[in-house]
TrEMBL record:
InterPro entries: Mediator_Med17. One of its GO terms (cellular component) is core mediator complex. Component of the Mediator complex. Pfam families: Med17. It comes from the Eukaryota. Keywords: Activator, Nucleus, Transcription, Transcription regulation. GO terms for biological process: regulation of transcription by RNA polymerase II. The keyword Transmembrane helix does not apply. Belongs to the Mediator complex subunit 17 family. Coiled coil: none annotated. The gene is MED17. This is Mediator of RNA polymerase II transcription subunit 17.
Amino acid sequence: MEERDWRKTKLSLERPYKDDQGERIPVLLDITPDGERVFESPENPTKLLGENLRRIFFERGVDFFERQDSLPSGVAQSLEAADQPSEDEENALDPAKTVLTSEELLSLRMECIPRLFIALGEMTEARDLLSLLLSSAPLRHPSAASSLPPLALTATVATKPPPIPSVEVFNAQLALGGKDEALRKAANVFKQAAANLEKSRQSSENYWADALKIRKANWGLVPAPLPLGAPTGKGADKTSKDFFVSFGLEEFPKKSGCPYGNVRC
């Protein structure tokens, strides 16, 4: 059975670097506000190789390739030295005779160079300070009595310029407007308080007028007990401020224990 064509299709997971015409796809870095696209400049392989070689010589040393060529012989010598007595092993493990590797030399250099730069900066500042102190001339002390030339200081009378009429009128209107607004707010507060007092006075008059009408109609009035939380100690005012209306039914039994023979509400 032949394999189907779509099964032969292969998709590469590698990032595409060429278009359909075989041209290199540039890497887009940014798009300016004008709509212009900024692409990554192509790298020169020769220049990149030169920079890599320069880094190798700078970080690993000038004799890096010579030491790389001598590695196989060094490995063979180390295998032969494994059969030697323990004294050679002790000499090989001696820190004084151990040769530092390129990585150790690089880490040591990266650790020492910042400290050397700090020391160089401090010494430069100290040198500049000493040169400044040595080159500066001694200060001359001012004379005790300094004499001023005659008529060096004069006094003149300056008059305040008159205010601008429009600005003065605007400031007066602003002040009067603020005072008028404050007075109106205070008047509204007093007006509302007076209305509340009048309303409470009328309700109180109507309340006691209704009480007199109830009493005139021969309804029983009973003093109301003091409200909850009212002072009941010695010397406290225990006068009742309200009353209850007592009423009863003709068929109501009198053995209910009520002192008035009726029901209070």
